[in-house]
Amino acid sequence: MWNLPQGEITFAVVEKPARKLNAVLLFDYGENQATIDMLLEKLNGALKDGGAEHTTETISDVEVQVFEFPKTDGNPYNKLAYFSAESYFVVASDVAVVKAVLERWEGGSDETLAKDEVFAYIFDKCATEDQEPAVKWYLDLIGLVKGGIAMVQGQNPQIGMQAGMALGFLPVLGLDALKGMGGGFDLGVGPYDSVSKTFIYAEQPPTGVMAAFQFPAIAQSPPKWVSADATMYVGLNWNVAEAYLAIESIIDSFVGPGSTAREIEKMATAEDGPQVHLRKDLLDNIEGKLNLVTLSSEEDDEDAEGPKIPAVTFTISLKDATAIKRVLDKASQTDGFPGEITEIEGETVYNLPLDGGQIMSIAVVGSDLAFSTTTSGLEAVIAGEARESLASSEDYKELAKHIPSKTSMMSFSQQDTQMQSAYEALKGGEAFNVEGFDLSKLPDFEALMKYAKPTATYCIPDENGTLFVGFSLADE
Fold this sequence. Notes:
- By secondary structure, the chain is of the alpha+beta class.
- Among the domains are: 107 residues, Protein Transport Mog1p, Chain A; 175 residues, no CATH class.
- It is 29% helix and 29% strand.
- The protein contains 13 helices and 19 strands.
- It has a 13-stranded antiparallel beta sheet with strand order 7-8-9-19-18-17-10-11-12-16-15-14-13, with helices on both faces. The chain has a six-stranded antiparallel beta sheet with strand order 1-2-6-5-4-3.
- Helix 4 packs antiparallel against helix 5.
- The two termini are 37 Å apart.
- About 1% of the residues have low confidence.
């Protein structure tokens, strides 16, 4: 059965007929005509035994098998239609879908997804070495939502009317600008062992919710304090000021102009509060360059209760570090402040309790606001330079050769250290047990390490959206 497909496999959800979403599956069975005939004969018998009425239709000179089940309340799907032709098998949840496929079978129609401008643009951006990816996907999210709502309106007008009203908020939220997204995956292309690309097509400039996610491209690399044994590093440049304005605008559009600013002012002047103004004291002093680092090691606290929190260190660049120091100092002096204040190398550190007896350490270090779930993580930021930095490691430098000079986001990941704990849990039966399989007989993880290569991901802006690329490199 699994050997039946011999080439292309395609699955799609389409709005055919109007106001109804239907599914269609197509695959190339190659030279397996005898096998497909045998399986279809068994399928026909099973469907008839299940109460389906069998008829045939001829569409574009192709005989289509149609099975119709008795209708049930609340279920709009009671048909199955399929055909096989030219070594392809096509099955759909409605005859209208099969008809649409056959009308385009010879490739002469202008009404195809391949000729859609958004689709074509996305896959032009997602090509690697000037070739289409081996695996590709596409989603018109807004179109899918609209099609689903139209279908609900036809089945249940009352609920459909309420859902239809929700569509009216799409322009307010800026989501109507999202025209489509898609991507592809390849193995062994050019310098890559594996490469995946995703493009989000959105009309510019962004508005509403979309405006809160603006990430200008800048030159970036791991700071010197990030050590080479980091399991993951993420660098991100976020336009925090525009994000705040976007969120404020959305809230005000629902509750009235100026409402957000007045509420923030009220919170800042409350006698029982920290006397901190969210925008003026905090957000206006944040620049937006973020660094996130995870380590495989954990704080050496065997007495900590509950699950360990991963060793994570996070920094965000500041416009005015002195102003943020004042905010932290002011907050720490309020009644009921839950943390403790300590010092590391002359830097004031605020330790806040977390579940399981662990802590979150916070400090202003140079021009960054730093957070860490381990003392050693914060010490690394304060020290400013690791003994062996990630940026100077050979694994990172090789991957960095294939990353653009300016990015909105970039990341590095050591797949072996990330996968090992999950694999060991699987082998030890801690993750789940599969009846009939002795997972303890799986090979040791060392046998698989050569397949767990370091990977990099980056994101760059485009005049019509955003491109995400993730890859690992082939062995030389």
